[in-house]
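INPUT
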Amino acid sequence: MFYREAGDFKTTYVEDSQTFPIRFDRYRYYFVLLVGFAVLPFIVNDYWVNAILVPFLIYSIAAIGLNILTGYCGQVSLGTGGFMAVGAYACYKLMTAFPDISIVIHILLAGGVTAAVGTLFGLPSLRIKGFYLAVATLAAQFFLVWLFNRVPWFYNYSASGQINAPERTVFGVPVTGASVEPWAMYMICLVFVFVCGVLARNLTRGSIGREWMAIRDMDIAAEIIGVNPLRAKLTAFAVSSFFVGISGALFFSVYLGAVEVGEAFGIQKSFIVLFMIIIGGLGSIFGSFAGAAFLVVLPVVLKLIGVDLLGWPTDIVAHFQLVIVGGLIIMFLILEPHGLAQLWRVAKEKLRLWPFPH
Amino acid sequence: MKKLATYTVATMMAAAPAMADLVFPSLSYRTGPYAAGGIPFADGYADYFTLLNERDGGIGGVMTRVVECETGYNTEKGVECYESTKGEGALVYQPLSTGITYQLIPKTTADNIPMHTLGYGRTSAKNGGVFSHTFNFPANYWDGASGAINYLLEINNGDINGKKIALVYHNSAYGKEPIRTLEGLAEKHGFELLLLPVDHPGQEQKSQWLQIRRERPDNVIMYGWGVMNQVAIQEAANIRFPMENFIGIWWSGGEHDVMPAGAAADGYKALTFHNVGKDFPVFDDLQKYVVDAGKAAGAGDQVGNVLYNRGMYAAMLAAEATKEAQKIHGVADITPAMMRDGLEALEMTAERMESIGLPNFGPTFKASCENHGGDGLVGVVEWDADSKSWSLISDFKPTDADIIAPLIEEDSASYASEAGIEPRC
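OUTPUT
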């Protein structure tokens, strides 16, 4: 009834090719932005920011990154944790080496460094596919974690091997370090998420995104119609790693503040981001957000229900959590292999016909 | 999902009664590869407060409440737990994880809540002038390293020149802590140090022990935790490394660490900063008021274990600091800021320990503004596989301050300049 194309006339090409062609969708999007930028910063507290919002935003960027590589370009990667570590350590080195330069630039540069490293590890993808590529990226994961543990230069020779984010400000407001206000932490992440989201959405809609999808669907056919696989695969690795690097840099500098590479960026990080895009939906930007929200919020909600409402012992709840997340992944793979994004798509189709489905 | 979370948060806040009680959050881990050590510690911590409630009606007439939050030894969950519990008026945090400690040092300082890291965490937090809200008495990792070397000096008549000593360590902030101290000590005493990192979670140690077999060190020191300990002791037994030359830090010295290796673990040594066994009057009270009343935390089968005792010791120090804070500020229902003062004024004397039913349980020490770390007295215990018990074979002795003090000075100074802190004293 409200959700339809009819009556929404497009008179220019720009209008015709916008991200949200349906008016209702567009307003919903503006509404979400308004709430995100203008309402939430004023009402969030420490708990909401640290336990839910900031991890959700940061994991969203990582999930978008992995989704570009795996969902759009079809290159399976298990190296996300390692690439996040590259972003974190690049950010740390830059922060401590050039303390006068804005943290925003450092985070972007950290993304750039990760893009370079990602491209390097993407080279094998030109020769190998599928499981074999997964194993090659797994090697990247272990190699990178080992490297950051092994070479003291990366952690500035600190006794503990930990890296600590010193205080840095944006427009005079601290965004890293101990005295960060929750809203500042939230805002910096939100700005990065917004920019990354818009960027990723438009990249995947454009010619380069089509190249990635052509490679994903059938690489030989893509090559025959003129897609350069070298360019397509390496750009996918570079762009994907750029996003993952930014998320790693934010994860370290804004969210945790102190990081130990094996613990924070281990193989489980790669898996959790992979679960996010599987549950959220491969090849969908919305799916990246949905998957990240799902896996960040679910444990918190389960904990609130189990421990605080029902008063169960914490270990039982923690074990249940594993069972439920595992069960949900299997359930999704069986019932809705395209993830939450597909549910959303179906809902929109239904809504378009509602209330007269025939 | 979000909506649901909002509702649950709202109902939770409505449901949580605004009682005046002393809240002691327990950032525990009963799951994951480190649960073997996390469970007894958490049980001991909770049981002691239950005992105080049941026997004395709380501390100074105010009931205590332990809020448990599962971290799984994971820093992200640790942050989540910290944020979710601090609103309840948490008096002191004891995260039982060096990684989470590093995370919480700036946060707790900014929030004006003290943190007590009993024998773990950032060693230089001993310098209370810089680390105003972090306490790590009675001993720290560097005391442990020095204590192990002192013990070796003791049994080798003061000469370990030319010996080869291997450090098998958890490849994390925790395991890396003692390296500098050991390097300094190696220079001083002329022994050779061999570093063997073991990656999280520590189940894979074949190559490290193969290297030990090849290099044949005279002694092995271990900084391990969780499943790593059991694997290491088993591997040592497999390569027939003489168990009496194998010394673990206090986190590698629980019953669950040595039991899997059975008789082969006989003679394994570990450091400690508190006494072992349940031969103390307080255990009678625990049995009577907590265990027999069915109020024991967890499965209730850990009473008297090394890590149970440590958890109880941590709780005891927190409770004593609470009494101290109540005395200083003259109010029973103290705030976290008052608790900090209580911790800083805490003095554990022999009479005090005797009066709470734990005579000679830990070393005596006195905290002050300069010293948040106690005197670093370290003892050694040995495992007897036949009787399945630990026994103290070397009493609590001082460690090498000549090496440790400058390192603490240096590390805390670098933290102070990084974080822009003016030393308070």
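end of record. Strands of chain A lie at 163-164, 169-170, 173-174, 258-259.
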